[in-house]
Design a protein that fits this description.
single chain; alpha/beta; TIM Barrel; eight-stranded parallel beta barrel; globular; binds NADPH dihydro-nicotinamide-adenine-dinucleotide phosphate
């Protein structure tokens, strides 16, 4: 495993990490979750990603039980949670980025994950109904109380991230240090263009999600939707609609041919492509089966196949290079 500092922080994070969205407490049973955590940890993965909303809190509970059972030294891994959507929120006070929910969600995450502090705490989306000052103060106070170590955002706009930094600067508070955006061969604009300045100005760290576009970039959906797959799940009909576009499937088929020609697999090519971007601090992997994770963890070895010539061939297939504004 290789490690890289998370943005401008001094925190070394494994370049590949492991998350539990859709899977833990939901799609897979707890024994498989434990096995996957074991495989990841043994491989040197040091970051496990979670959120209050995953399986309405159950994902954190399952991960917490595993962390408790394993007794891995607490200083050997990084664990996160995210606040905003609530854990199955029934009442208006159970979601958002207001001080009350941020405070309560953090305590609930600590309880479910069975840890004394969270290493990373993300604002899962921007909250238009809470003043940014209130959120920045709340996060700063959690750091001061020793409940979290670093805070960041997920899918915020560059402007919202900068506003948080300005508030932090104005009141001498600790600002956000990382963002969790989607980044893969089919989703590039926000990561490559919108945040471009933030890597330079505030040294933004990134923990990127869905490197395989929920499995689309493995080629498994090229000939229909396999029974035992994420996009077969009824509650994810909205995701299938977004992802299963004819134009994307054509690109995926061509990328699959290229991967074969290079002597690798499409999942590895896709993950290695994300790793090639120097602004990616860690790529968060997801998996439902041992073989998937074992395969995906080899992506660091695949990176060397992505020469300038191969990158150009990939670019010619995906045809989505974002346009950078001319200043
Ligand atoms: P991916 O895009 O890599 O999708 C993972 C899924 O693809 C697996 O669960 C599996 O699903 C399938 N898969 C993975 N590897 C293979 C393989 N080698 N061969 C065939 N199928 C494979 O990542 P995720 O979408 O899971 O995102 C990763 C993590 O990022 C999440 O767990 C979460 O922590 C984070 N995240 C954060 C978000 C945010 O808003 N901040 C949003 C989404 C994710 P199956 O077997 O069911 O087909």
């Amino acid at each position: 495993m290789e490690y890289k500092n998370l943005g401008k922080t001094g925190l070394p994070i494994s370049r590949l990490s492991f998350g539990s969205w859709i899977t833990f407490g939901n799609q897979i049973d707890n024994k498989i979750s434990e096995r996957l955590m074991d495989i990841a940890y043994d491989y040197g993965v040091n970051f496990f990603d979670n959120a209050e909303t995953y399986a309405a809190g159950e994902s954190e509970r399952v991960m917490g039980d595993i962390l408790h059972k394993k007794s891995w030294s607490r200083d050997s891994y990084i664990v996160s949670s995210k606040v905003f959507f609530g854990a199955g929120a029934k009442y208006p006070t159970q979601k958002g980025l207001n001080r009350k929910h941020v405070f309560e969600a953090c305590h609930q995450a600590l309880e479910r994950l069975k840890v004394d502090y969270l290493d990373l705490y993300f604002c899962h989306r921007p909250d238009k109904s809470t003043p940014i000052e209130e959120t920045v103060w709340s996060m700063h106070q959690l750091i001061m109380q020793g409940k979290i170590l670093y805070w960041g955002t997920s899918e915020w706009s560059a402007q919202e991230i900068m506003e948080a930094h300005m508030v932090a600067k104005q009141y001498n508070l600790i600002g956000p240090v990382m963002e969790q955006p989607q980044y893969n061969l089919l989703q590039r604009h926000k990561f490559e263009v919108e945040y471009a300045q933030l890597y330079k100005t505030v040294g933004l760290g990134t923990t990127t999600w869905s490197p395989l576009a929920s499995g689309l970039l493995t080629g498994k959906y090229n000939n229909g939707i396999p029974e035992d797959s994420r996009l077969k799940r009824e509650e994810l009909g909205w995701l299938s609609e977004i992802l299963l576009q004819e134009s994307s499937l054509k690109k995926v088929a061509k990328l699959g041919d290229l991967a074969k020609e290079l002597g690798t697999t499409l999942p590895l090519l896709s993950i290695a492509w994300c790793l090639k971007n120097e602004n990616v601090s860690t790529v968060i992997l997801g998996a439902t089966k041992e073989q998937q994770l074992i395969e995906n963890l080899k992506a660091l070895e695949t990176e060397s196949l992505l020469t300038a010539e191969v990158m150009a061939r990939i670019e010619a297939i995906i045809e989505n290079a974002p346009v950078h504004p001319q200043y």
